[in-house]
Amino acid sequence: MDATLWIAGKGLNAVQRDFVNRNDLVSRIRVAPVTSNLVELYQAADWFVHPTQYDAFSNTVLQSMACGLPGIVSVMDGAVDHIQNGENGLMLYHPQQPIELAARIQEGIDLGETERVRLSQNARESVLPLTWDKHMSEWLEVIEASRY
Prior knowledge:
13% strand
């Protein structure tokens, strides 16, 4: 497998850095500074991997999809409601199991370029309707309905 892992956000802790060093992974892992332009990272990547064990609804999943980046997304994230497995991304059913995570990443890497591009286009298309105007309009409908 020829891949580079980019970590956006908080960097590696001492235990994680030690693991990377002991397993000769230094050349395969990059940490993007917190101040990085995420849009550029999303557009340069092939996959967005989000193996969270809990997230009510991660904006990063939708942001990556809006940039045309298909994800390998944990079912423990509420944003997975926007993922159709094999259509606009891949679902990770047991994020606490490293073997499944590795298998899903390998599955993504093994997809042909045509299939990955199809998932990318579908990812973007599936979130385009999720605008702030639509969101606010739906809230206003709820507020208006609650008046009666």
